[in-house]
Amino acid sequence: MNILLIGGTGFIGPHVARELAQQGHNVTVYHRGESPGCMPASVRRITGDRNNLLADSNKLRRESPEVVIDLILSGRRQAKALMEVFRGVARRIIALSSGDVYRAAGILHGLEPGGLQPLPLTETSELRSVSNVYPTEQIRRLQKVFSWLDDEYDKIPVEQTVMGDPQLIGTVLRLPMVYGPGDPLHRTFPYVKRMDDRRPAILIQEEAASWRAPRGYVENVAAAIARAAVSSRAEGRIYNIAEPEAFTEIEWVRKIAQSAGWCGEVVPVPRDVTPEHLRVSHNTEQHWVMSSARIREELDFQEPVEPAVALARTIAWERENPPPIDPAQFDYAAEDSAIAKYRDCTTTGARVPELDVRRD
Description:
Elements: E1 2-6, H1 13-22, E2 26-31, E3 44-47, H2 57-61, E4 67-70, H3 76-86, E5 92-98, H4 103-108, H5 136-143, H6 155-163, E6 169-175, E7 177-179, H7 189-196, E8 201-205, H8 206-209, E9 215-217, H9 218-230, E10 238-240, H10 249-260, E11 265-269, H11 293-298, H12 307-320, H13 332-345
Parallel strand pairs: 1-2, 1-4, 2-3, 4-5, 5-6, 6-10, 7-9, 8-11
């Protein structure tokens, strides 16, 4: 097939392009030309600005793509332009969405009223009733990392636009928190740095230690995207993409520790003892667990990269590519003081549990 990727040179896109090219498909990537991306020589490139997609309409339509994968859709305006450009040319549009469309995400961020959402979240779970899940100041910070984000960021209208077109078939893929080499957010770095700095203990706010979240290794997420792109069964369908098990934060730290070779302690501490730079503001009573059973059953999807290999590759990359360090986020004196205070206030005589590094 002729497959066009929009924004395919960032974190996830090169893996998708590589997977599809290896399967023998004709892959073209439309991007701004600012990031080369590591892709096979067979992948064609077109430069342009997705925020001005209509201006490039003719050259994009000349590619005659059967499937278009948009990795960087931000809001309704972009989605409408996407459908306008490829209506009558492509057979199907695949839009990358996010687990933040669920009402559970709104509760997590303190935006939605009412009780907690039942888990796991499936593709039919209730969506947010509140638009724009992230405040303006957070969007501004994220735009420094993800330049494709615009001020209208909200994946719900993206999904509605792509799935509601009567002439162009849509597929929506709701992504988890993606980690791995190239992660612009460096999700695992704060833990890896503390482990490499030989910290005797890593603190986690008590409420956050047991919070569960959906995760996905970048190559595995890309493989799921590629599977959906080439499967006619995925037409008109919405799929969650996430690892089968949603680990608690403390379980996640322990897995990182096992891979990194760190044998310190992971210490959950009360909020009033937790240093300011380690406190969380979200509602940790609302877990964010997404079921990926549908894509596994309908498309026979399985992750090609095993969890241990995924973490090892991620840690190696974090060590070789550390982000700029904010000293305020690694205030070890404050962390040592918090541990001492917590242990002084513990009257049960029980020792803080040591990190369990046994292999699962």
